[in-house]
Write a structure and sequence with these properties.
The complex is a heterotrimer of chains A (472), B (92) and C (485). With 472 residues, chain A is α+β, with helices and mostly antiparallel strands. In chain A, 38% of the residues lie in helices and 19% in strands. In chain A, a hairpin with a 2-residue loop joins β10 and β11. The N and C termini of chain A lie far apart (82 Å). Chain B has a domain of 38 residues. In chain B, strands 2-3 form a two-stranded antiparallel sheet. The longest helix of chain B has 15 residues. Chain B starts with a helix and ends with a strand. Chain C is α/β, with parallel strands linked by helices and 485 residues long. Chain C has a single domain, classed as Amidase signature (AS) domain (Amidase signature (AS) enzymes). Helices cover 38% and strands 14% of the residues of chain C. Chain C is built from 15 helices and 13 strands. In chain C, α2 packs antiparallel against α3 and α9 packs across α12. The chains are: A alpha+beta (472), B alpha+beta (92), C alpha/beta (485). At the B-C interface, α1 and α2 of B face α9, α10, α11, α12 and α13 of C.
Chain lengths: 472, 92, 485
């Protein structure tokens, strides 16, 4: 029997606000242990949380980026569980009234992965286990998170990978997080079950906790899919449980122990008041939203006829698309700009992180000027290409490398002289042309181009040559 | 009805040990308090709702960094510490 | 004149130096605290240091504030930087906060002279002060009797003249009940009038800090000083009714004083008589007495215990032996360490309430208990709002009885819970309530009455209390203890 994979994701993303969610400590990654701490974030008795306004605004931006509904009223709840990395023995989170309801992420195959909701909460500290001893560092404790909870709409490992990539792309795009999985600023809990192909009812699911790379997500899902299928095929039953993934062996194992009876006893946090989100504020934030990658992709392919593959590269990071948008200002063919970026500039920003920053010596305005020279016929494509390389090396503008004499190719008189020379020196070709061999004209134009070192306008040369032959 | 298992479960959730020989008496005592609390279920159902005292909303702080405390202060009350961390040493 | 004003005048007119006054209090604490157990920590050095600073100001001819140099104390659940703060629990043994509670910051800025931290029921859970890890405070009127609780040490210290005033906290009656038992004035402010920042939480939606004092004027002065908005407490707005001290003495002719019949149910005869006698005093002062029914308050006690314990079970989860306080000696792994620390560090009553709170929040019981209780909270708030449509102030007993003998409370938890029956409705509804001495029983133990006001109506209830104090000064009797001014 064939089995279909069914998966839903709970994705935690650390927000890049300046300060923690309930106190003024910095959210900076790293730092010496326990140096980004204060009485509030180490949960000293008597301390109280005060909500960072920016966290709410960041979460609303996240919600708008995935087409979610922004709640009018949201509340904070306590999720109670005792663990050394959680200073208060409860995490302030949202259950009963989250900030964002619904939303979706659209995949390249056209499927929409629906989101259940997005809520805000605080991160926990970090535990280091050494020789059986436990060291606790609360620097990360209280860093703001959003948790994006999807519906179980994912049907393959490829979809899962793309879902995570899309989330990462759009959340970076709207500037709410750097989404660095290796630094833990984006982490996924993967729910997974299988069911016989063609059936409706969901199978029993397991949850793989805290996945921190897309590669591992794929490995873990693959392993877990096979494990569940094998189990069912051999007459066993999947038990609903929480699993951890072992990077070294590529296997999953149960996290369950007698010590954690999980009943989070959520209740409204009495230390925090209701969050009321006026529609004007949502409208204001919506107006400030950048054009989203999916919309840009559509615009690039439909308006500019850029191939989808190229458009996807241009919209992978916001800085690239902004560079592109600035560089195409007033040019005849945005596709030419796209080719320069993908063909030449990309060779200089090879890594993904370089692409994300997209720090290029040539400004989009400089590229724009170069393309406009090309558009106006003042320079040829080969010259433009070689000039761009020099620009990228030096940060200088195009006209620093192209002299006045290079431009406009050749003046009218010189062009006429060159054409005359071509006609007079290639009478055989002239004869052929006269005898109806249209192609022969190309040889004559080629001669002009060669003698002008590629600077002449080929169209103008062809017209002139035809005229000269007629006048002969 | 509060059972021994209920009490064992809530003790585990509360991270409290209940000695085996006290389980029965604690179960009985919990039952007594729960019976007392059950009085509320005789109350008419309420539609007044409760959000928070004084119905407050939108109390925020601005996203401005306030200097953190020195690590020596943060760890001042720690029963055990090492290398600027809180420490749980596992001795046995 | 209140004690604070009296001390202020003595200091300002140089009848006594602040250092002398402070030493006098410290000496009395040294001799009387063994019997009263009002203090669990005495901060003599800090007190004398502040006193010297005040004396310097006076010597330099500078004007001093009303609370400046006045010896006082704080309940041991208010965080004081560098000074032991234990909630009278073993689990906070040795804990010295690294920050100050807002109330202490406010008073410290006025050069209040803190003599020490006062005794209390462990984590403010109790009605007799006897759940204190250090043993309960005694009642200055009869040391065989309890001080009441949980702010028993505060009431005992003020009644025993071991502090001019004290700050207590009130979650279900913890200021008013001991004030009633010890024959002093205790104000539980409107929820949100005083910052909770630095107050070690018992039940966050019910806790409120307030003054315990010998006179209504003193309570008003202290309330005015601490009722400020606080950016660190999202629920704190500060006082809204203006300065209360200056409103004392405003005319109360025509004031409608309501008595809810349910408040008199099950109340001992001597207490009931004293409260009704007080209503006669009010009549003679020109107020109007109106009787009404408030049937929902019969659910107040279970609602209170469900909400308070639920919040407590969450608030007290953090005591795990890792960051502060007590840690067990022998254990096997982190989980075992946490469980042992908590089992050894918390007393029986605290454990009982944590377990109850965990139960009412746990899967399958949340709706029947916690959710239902918060819904009823809404109903109780509405009922009070309706009541205040027909009266200005509600008069009720503070406690259905007078201070009981030591050892009586610990035996039966439910019976002990019943002593809170008249005080908890105010916490549930977030209203202000003040307990005022209104007589003595046949054995000479004080009886207290409670004046309950509208939200942020502290000025009105304190004014009503003030008029009663002026009309019946015989009920504000001094004890044999402490500093005599």
């Amino acid at each position: 029997m064939k089995y279909e994979l069914v998966s839903g994701f709970e994705t935690h993303i650390e927000l890049s606000t300046k300060t923690k969610i309930f106190c003024g400590c910095t959210t900076q990654f790293g730092g010496e242990p326990n140096t980004h701490c204060c009485p509030v974030c180490i949960g000293l008795p008597g301390t109280l949380p005060v909500l960072n306004r920016e966290v709410v605004r960041f979460a609303i931006r996240a919600g708008l980026a995935v087409h979610g509904k922004i709640a009018e009223i949201a509340k904070m709840d306590r999720k109670n569980y005792c663990y050394p990395d959680l200073a208060k023995a409860y995490q302030i989170s949202q259950l009963y009234a989250p900030l964002i309801i619904g939303g979706h992420i659209e995949l390249s195959n056209g499927r929409k992965i629906r989101l259940h909701h997005i809520h805000i909460e605080e991160d926990a500290g970090k535990l280091i286990h050494r020789h059986g001893d436990t060291y606790v560092d609360y620097n990360r404790g209280g860093v703001p998170l959003i948790e994006i909870v999807s519906e179980p709409d994912i049907r393959s490992i490829d979809e899962a990978k793309e879902y995570v990539e899309r989330l990462q792309q759009v959340m970076r795009w709207v500037g709410i997080s750097d989404c660095k999985m290796q630094e833990g600023s984006m982490r996924c809990d993967v729910n997974i079950s299988v069911r016989p192909q063609g059936t409706e009812a969901f199978g029993t699911r397991t949850e793989i906790k805290n996945m921190n790379s897309i590669a591992n997500i794929a490995r873990a899902m693959e392993y877990e899919y096979d494990r569940q299928v094998d189990l069912i095929e051999s007459g066993g039953k999947v038990i609903q449980e929480t699993l951890r993934f072992d990077d070294a062996t590529g296997t999953t194992s149960s996290m369950r122990s007698k010590e954690d009876a999980h009943d989070y006893r959520y209740f409204r946090d009495p230390d925090l008041v209701t969050i009321n989100i006026p529609r004007e504020e949502v409208d204001e934030l919506r107006a400030q939203m950048p054009e989203l990658p999916a919309d840009k992709l559509e615009r690039y392919t439909e308006e500019y006829q850029i191939p989808e593959k190229d458009a996807a590269l241009l919209t992978k990071y916001r800085r690239i698309s902004e560079y592109f948008d600035e560089a195409i200002e007033g040019v005849k063919s945005p596709k030419t700009v796209s080719n320069f970026i993908i063909g030449q500039i990309f060779r200089r920003v090879e890594t993904e992180s370089d692409k994300e920053v997209f720090n290029v010596a040539t400004s989009p305005q400089q590229l724009n000027e170069l393309v406009k020279l090309l558009d106006s016929g003042k320079i040829r494509n080969n010259l433009a290409k070689s000039t761009l390389e020099k620009m990228l090396d030096s940060g200088k503008k195009a006209t620093d490398f192209i002299s006045e004499s290079d431009m406009g190719g050749v003046d009218e008189n010189t062009l006429l002289a060159l054409c005359k020379a071509a006609v007079e020196g290639n009478l055989k070709a002239v004869e052929d042309y006269k005898n109806g061999k249209q192609k022969a004209i190309k040889a004559l134009v080629g001669n002009v181009m060669k003698n002008s070192r590629g600077k002449a306008d080929a169209m103008a040369a062809e017209a002139k040559i035809k005229k000269l032959i007629e006048e002969m | 009805m509060v059972t021994r298992e209920d009490v064992e479960n809530i003790a585990l959730l509360s991270k409290l040990f209940v000695p085996e020989n006290e389980l029965d008496s604690l179960t009985a005592s919990m039952q007594e308090i729960i019976d007392f609390a059950d009085a509320i279920n005789n109350a008419p159902s309420s539609e007044d709702g409760f959000d928070n005292i004084n119905n407050l909303s939108n109390v925020f702080r601005e996203d401005e960094v306030v200097p953190s405390y020195p690590v020596s202060e943060i760890l001042k009350n720690a029963p055990e510490q090492a290398e600027d961390h809180f420490l749980v040493r596992n001795r046995e | 004149m209140g004690y604070i004003a009296k001390i202020h005048n003595m200091l300002a007119q140089k009848e006594i130096s602040c250092a002398e006054l402070t030493k006098e209090y410290l000496n009395r604490i040294e001799s009387d605290n063994a019997a009263l157990k009002a203090y669990v920590c005495v901060t003599a050095d800090e007190a004398l240091k502040t006193a010297e600073a005040v004396d310097k100001k006076i010597a330099a001819g500078e004007e001093i504030g009303l609370l400046e140099g006045v010896p006082m104390s704080l309940k041991d659940n208010m965080s004081t930087k560098g000074i032991s703060t234990t909630c009278c629990s073993k689990i906070l043994t040795g804990y010295k906060p690294i920050y100050d509670a807002t109330v202490w910051e406010l008073l410290k800025a006025q050069n209040a002279v803190m003599l020490g931290k006062t005794n209390m029921d462990e984590f403010a859970m109790g009605s007799s002060c006897e759940t204190s890890y250090y043993g309960g405070a005694a009642n200055p009127f009869n040391t065989n009797h309890v001080s009441g609780g949980s702010s028993g040490g505060a009431a005992s210290a003020v009644s025993g003249n071991l502090a001019a005033y004290s700050l207590g906290s009130d979650t279900g009656g913890s200021i008013r009940q001991p004030a009633s038992f010890c024959g002093v004035v205790g104000l539980k402010p409107t929820y949100g009038a005083v910052s909770r920042y630095g107050l070690i939480a018992y039940a966050s939606s019910l806790d409120q800090i307030g003054p315990v004092a010998k006179t209504v004027e003193d309570a008003a002065i202290v309330f005015d000083a601490i009722s400020k908005p606080d950016k660190r407490d999202s629920t704190c707005l500060g006082a809204k009714g203006g300065d209360t001290f200056s409103q004392l003495g405003n005319d109360i002719k025509g004031m409608k004083i309501g008595i809810a019949r349910e408040y008199l149910d099950g109340v001992r005869d001597d207490v009931k008589e004293a409260v009704l006698a007080a209503s006669e005093v009010y009549k003679s002062l020109g107020a109007e007495i109106v009787y009404f029914d408030l049937p929902v308050i019969k659910y107040a006690l279970p609602v209170y215990y469900i909400i308070a314990c639920a919040e407590a079970s969450s608030n007290l989860g953090r005591y795990d032996g890792i960051r502060y306080g007590y840690k067990t000696e022998h254990y096997n792994g982190t989980h075992d360490m946490i469980c042992r620390t908590r089992s050894e560090g918390f007393g029986e009553e605290v454990k009982r309430r944590i377990l109850l709170g965990t139960y009412v929040l746990s899967a399958g019981y949340y709706d029947a208990y916690y959710k239902k209780a918060t819904d009823l909270r809404g109903t109780i708030i509405r009922a009070f709002n309706d009541a205040f449509a027909s009266c200005d102030v509600i008069l009720a007993p503070t406690v259905p009885m007078t201070a009981f003998e030591k050892g009586h409370a610990v035996s039966d938890p439910i019976e002990t819970y019943l002593t809170d029956i008249c005080t908890v409705p105010v916490n549930i509804a977030g209203l202000p309530g003040v307990s005022v001495p209104c007589g003595f029983n046949s054995k000479g133990m004080p009886i207290g009455m409670q004046l309950i006001g509208r939200s942020f109506g502290e000025a009105q209830i304190l004014n009503a209390a003030y008029h009663y104090q002026q009309a019946a000064p015989e009920n504000f009797k001094d004890t044999k203890w402490g500093v005599k001014l």
